[in-house]
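HAD hydrolase, family IA, Enterococcus avium ATCC 14025. Tokens?
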Amino acid sequence: MKKIVLFDLDGTLTDSSEGIINSVCYMLKKKGLAIPDEATLHSFIGPPLTDTLKQLYDLKEAEADKAVQIYREYYAEQGIKQLSVYDGIEEVLASLAPDYYLAIATSKPEFYAEQIIANTGLSKYFSGIFGADLAGIRSNKTDVIAYALAQLEETPAVMIGDRKFDIIGAKANQIKSIGVLYGFGERNEMIEAQADRIVATVDELSVAIRQSF
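Tokens:
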């Protein structure tokens, strides 16, 4: 059976910062909440939105859920289109697809992830797209990875991602991980999360993935 390579989406396959940050700012303005500095805005990329809202604004569950709905007003119409595929990613996927099962494991709602992969023309490379559910029950990366592995009939697997949540989720599911530095995370974050490998550029991905098994 082919081995499984799981990719995070935001910050790993696509630079989605513009669409996410614009959606966050739209939501914060409508909620009357202060818009933070750029570094803090970037912290919204990666983890479940409700978690970040609770942490930064001390929102209760119900209020955070309402804020997410406002976020999606903008994201569904405009933010979802405000992204680009990182240079070299399609070449990496094309080189790996004959030998591995490639799949997406993202904390983004699965419905949006499917649209993004279709819009970017990358669907042909993936055996599955696995994400959060719109209700937020399956939202953290550990749960998403477990869900993906269950659907793919777990074999040796590796998780590729740009944030500590990807690495932590991989460890919780007892699979290897590769942290990438061209996205939204930093080297110290990857080291502290104990990524099995760290790569700085897209060009290093193919070799790192093949050497992980």
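Strands lie at 3-7, 14-15, 84-85, 100-109, 128-132, 157-161, 176-180, 197-199.
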